Structures are given as C-alpha cells and as structure tokens.
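Record type: monomer structure entry
Structure origin: computed from sequence
Chain ID: A
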Amino acid sequence: MNGSLPVHLVAVISDRTEITELSSTLVNTARKDWMTLDNLYTEMPLTEDFAQPPLPAFGGRVRCRSIYAAAAMEDPVARRVIQVCADAGEQARLLPEVPMKMKLADQATALLPLTQAGTAGALVIRAPVIISALRDYFELLWERATPLRPERTAAPDGRLAPAQQRVLELMAEGLNDDAIARRAGLSTTTVRRHIAAILSRLSVSSRFAAGAAAQRRGWIG
C-alpha cells in the first residue's frame, strides 16, 4: 500500500512567482466565504497597492473576513491598506498578535506560509479534514478579535442578516448543528453563534420556540 499523501490534497510550493500568483488569484475561487489572517509582514517595504479588497463581483454573496495584527494600525501605510479593504466591504478585526498568515477560500483551499512573509515557501491544502480545522481555528480567533468598525448584525429592515436567515431556515428543517454547518458552508462554531444570536433576537430559549416566533414574524414560511 502506498502511504504517500495524494498530491491534490497537500502540496508544497517554493517558486516565488507561483506563490504570488496563487495568493492573488485564490480569492477568485471563493463562492461563500473568504477568510484571511494577516500580519502585513513583507520582505519589501509595504505600499498601498498591497491592498486586495474584496472583488466587486462578490456583490455581498461572499462573506469576506480578515484578522489583522493590531500593531499594523500604528503604521500609516498598513492602516490605509486595512481601511481600503474595509471600505470595499471586508469585515476586519484586530488581534494583539496574529500568529501567521493564512488565506482560506470556502471549504476548498487554504494557503499557509512556510516563512514569516510567505514568499519563499507555502503550503497549499485541499484536504477537507484540515480545511475544517483551519476554519474552526479562524472562528476561534475571530471571536477573540476586536472589530475595526461597528458590525451590522441585522439587515436594514430589521430582519436577520443573510447568514443568520439561512441558519434559521435550516433549523426549521430540523437539522442539527453539524448538518446545518455542512449545508450552509459554515463551521459548527459559527452556526452555534448564529443560533444563539437568533434566539436572542426572537427572545426565546429553544429552537422550537424560535421556529414558532420566526413564523409569526414571517421570517420563515
């Protein structure tokens, strides 16, 4: 039996051009979630064209979230880079320390650096079990991080935010947390956070009561 890991699941790349191209184009593959960790460490001086704001084509269909090292806000250029991304629709949060860089598209592909800047070597991961663990790790950091700006938790008309609405609809189907996470393309941790927010919004303490309250409000059919 060949015990080697399939190449399509995990690959190491060391060509700087290939790393740069993959880092720039990976965002195009996201369909639901785009998540990044960034300490804004670079081998060359940081310039404002470093910013890669969420693509206009996302049109709100892809949730873009980034966690930055708080110290980056002390550098004028780094601060403008972060603000450009936030102005383009990215949800940005800050942590005292960001342990590494990471780019993660949906439940499909992750790009991890093998060096501090990530340009000399990188790990491309498509193994579902590792992707799931990385998503959970991101969510843990996300919960600890401080929002760069106030974040909207509800739609303008007072209804639930789109992600919470999707979770509510799947709850109404009687699915458990793990099944909802798979259907919605979210981590189980995020699903549970959304459920807690939904129960709070509806002022109820159980899923059954949430379903009844949501039907009365016309949030679900």
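Annotation 1: The chain has two domains: 10-127, 162-217.
Annotation 2: The two ends are 53 Å apart (CA to CA).
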